[in-house]
């Protein structure tokens, strides 16, 4: 059967276009108008037969007890039940929000000296620490979290764990350092997600060309089956959230690191905090020029099929982490919803039968 006409219908923009795995069963809906016509014919035939009885009470009994609309409600409900069951048989699908199956999230947090700036009250570091703790509280307890701290270098402050107390302790132990190595943070986060993959910073002296992802120039090309890139964002059991207030000043190129993450399907959500245009920030008798490299952070998120967020205040930063929590714990998926239609059909059929027994002492 040709059902191209179903796909060519112009649906209102606000209403999602229906999708069915077995659309051929929708032809059964054409039986419903036939059932309606049959019901009308039966009702007219009952009236013609009823006038032959001499007793008015017998006529009323034949037409049904109570108000006229009651007589038609159970059949109408049964018709709706049949429609719902036919739709269920066509296996409808819908895009719904479901709990994500992500099991590990790596928080990569900037601990460079510029995080002491007070443009985000009380200062950037404290605001980031408090927002991260709130983030941990809102995550489901069955999701592991690891923490990578980075400045001029990057290191694992806490390996992936379910123990929220250990994570909070690691956040409280942050020590400020010089420089900013955003690329290193991504690589170390990847090595934490894939501890057996042999991911090292030295790999990022690499070629972007085909034949080798993450190989040093003095190494022989790897075998073709050693690593096969996957579509960006396709890795659904882990993600990286990187927060920084500056631009890369040392370490590997963050865009090379982003490609490494994208080739492994890992999403890197980036959060920028602080000064966007570039300003000289002074505190405790010394000053330094800082600038948030939003363009690079946006490119990292885009390359890895993730999102970029900007937080200019402590309140914004907490809201960003709340946003991230919902994105990382819920994801939209196209899911078959046949069971919902089948349940609706069964309930309508039960209601039709129950009302018929209650009002007329018989099942339809």
Summarize the structure.
This protein has helices at 4-8, 31-50, 56-63, 68-89, 124-138, 164-172, 182-193, 254-263, 294-303, 314-329, 338-360, and strands at 19-20, 92-99, 104-110, 144-150, 154-161, 238-244, 267-273, 279-283, 286-290, 308-311, 330-336.
Report on the structure:
There is one protein chain. With about 375 residues, the protein is an alpha/beta fold. It has two domains: about 20-95 and about 335-360, no CATH class; about 100-310, von Willebrand factor, type A domain (Rossmann fold, 3-Layer(aba) Sandwich), CATH 3.40.50.410. Helix content is about 40%, strand content about 20%. The protein contains eleven helices and eleven strands. The chain has helices at about 5-10, 30-50, 55-65, 70-90, 125-140, 165-170, 180-195, 255-265, 295-305, 315-330, 340-360; strands spanning about 20, 90-100, 105-110, 145-150, 155-160, 240-245, 265-275, 280-285, 285-290, 310, 330-335. The protein has a six-stranded mixed sheet with strand order 5-4-3-6-7-10, sandwiched between helices. α5 (about 125-140) links the parallel β3 and β4. The longest helix has 23 residues, at about 340-360. It is elongated and about 105 Å long. The protein starts with a helix and ends with a helix. Mean pLDDT is about 80; it is low at about 205-225.
């Amino acid at each position: 059967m040709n059902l191209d006409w179903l796909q060519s219908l112009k649906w209102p923009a606000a209403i999602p276009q229906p999708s069915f795995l077995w659309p051929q069963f929708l032809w059964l809906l054409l039986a419903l108008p036939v059932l309606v016509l049959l019901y009308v014919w039966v009702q007219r035939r009952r009236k013609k037969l009823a006038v032959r009885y001499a007793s008015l009470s017998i006529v009323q009994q034949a037409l049904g007890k109570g108000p006229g609309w009651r007589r038609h409600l159970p059949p109408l409900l049964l018709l709706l039940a049949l429609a719902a069951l036919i739709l269920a048989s066509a296996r409808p699908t819908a895009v719904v929000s479901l709990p994500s199956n992500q099991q590990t999230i790596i928080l990569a947090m900037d601990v460079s000296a510029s995080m002491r700036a007070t443009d985000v009250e009380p200062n950037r570091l404290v605001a980031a620490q408090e927002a991260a703790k709130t983030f941990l509280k809102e995550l489901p307890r069955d999701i592991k979290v690891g923490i990578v701290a980075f400045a001029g270098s990057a290191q694992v402050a806490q390996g992936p764990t379910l123990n929220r107390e250990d994570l909070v302790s690691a956040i409280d132990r942050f020590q400020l350092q010089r420089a900013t190595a955003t690329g290193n943070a991504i690589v170390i986060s990847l090595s934490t997600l894939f501890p057996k993959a042999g991911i090292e910073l030295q790999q990022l002296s690499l070629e972007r060309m085909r034949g080798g992802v993450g190989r040093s120039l003095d190494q022989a090309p790897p075998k073709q089956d050693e690593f096969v890139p996957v579509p960006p964002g396709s890795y659904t059991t882990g993600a990286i959230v990187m927060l920084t207030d500056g631009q890369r000043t040392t370490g590997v190129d963050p865009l090379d690191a982003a490609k490494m993450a994208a080739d492994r399907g890992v999403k890197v959500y980036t959060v920028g905090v602080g000064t966007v245009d570039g300003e000289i920030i002074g505190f405790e008798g010394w000053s330094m020029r800082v600038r948030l490299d939003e363009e690079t952070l946006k490119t990292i998120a885009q390359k890895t099929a993730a999102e970029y967020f900007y937080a200019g205040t402590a309140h914004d930063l907490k809201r960003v982490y709340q946003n991230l929590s919902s994105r990382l714990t819920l994801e939209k998926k196209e899911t078959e919803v046949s069971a919902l239609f089948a349940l609706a059909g069964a309930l309508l059929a039960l209601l039709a039968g129950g009302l018929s027994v209650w009002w007329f002492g018989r099942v339809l």
